[in-house]
Amino acid sequence: DGGITQSPKYLFRKEGQNVTLSCEQNLNHDAMYWYRQDPGQGLRLIYYSQIVNDFQKGDIAEGYSVSREKKESFPLTVTSAQKNPTAFYLCASSQSRDSRLKAFFGQGTRLTVV
Amino acid sequence: QKEVEQNSGPLSVPEGAIASLNCTYSDRGSQSFFWYRQYSGKSPELIMFIYSNGDKEDGRFTAQLNKASQYVSLLIRDSQPSDSATYLCAVHTGRRALTFGSGTRLQVQP
Predict the structure, then answer these.
(1) Centroid of chain to Cα A6
(2) A55: nearest CA in chain B?
(3) Residue pLDDT, tens place only, A24-57
(4) Is B8 in Cβ contact with A40 (below 8 Å)?
(5) Helix, strand, coil % over all residues of chain B, rounded to 5
(6) What distance in Å separates the CA atoms of residue A90 and residue A87, rounded to the nearest whole number?
(7) When comparing pLDDT for A29 and A98, which is higher?
(8) Does A99 sit within 8 Å of B31, measured CB to CB?
(9) Among A51, A100, A109, A112, which would you mutate to test the B interface (most chain B Cβ atoms within 10 Å of its Cβ)?
(10) Do A101 and B97 touch (CB under 8 A)?
């Protein structure tokens, strides 16, 4: 089945710890995105990548890092510099040749600081 | 001013009624417009998209776009309790990623 897979579904982080969220897609999409959602709020863009080995900061990139070494994969690392990381993290992808940006989401990772 | 604005709701409608969800956007150069449905605890699911002024219908859903007024809406006919969810409006504002509103929570009362 084609789709976007995020793992893990739930993740617990201790104070001062870095954690990495996985996002893999087999849709052959060029573009991938990471969004953060806080309770009762919309999605805020963290990072996006239009092509392998290239990525751009979104609106709230501080405390996060990404890599795009393969077309299928766009992992997000939440570093200890992110002071309030508890949130729902959503990965999405789209075909960048489709300038209209029809994007599809994975099932999300819920991160909690303990 | 937020780039994409939605009334947070909740919008409560009786079963079988028409639910009308509204969204305004600030960037006149915006090119494409999307409605996502998000059930509690789940990820957003794309349900409608519209690119040109006018109406677009798909089953019980109709998306309406008025670029002059910078306004996009979603109508849900014959609303069902299973339609109860948060509806997110998303806009391609010319940036390389979608910009989302904060969502409208819809409650359909049986």
Answers:
(1) 9
(2) B96
(3) 999 999 999 999 999 878 899 999 999 999 999 9
(4) yes
(5) 5, 55, 45
(6) 10
(7) A29
(8) yes
(9) A100
(10) yes
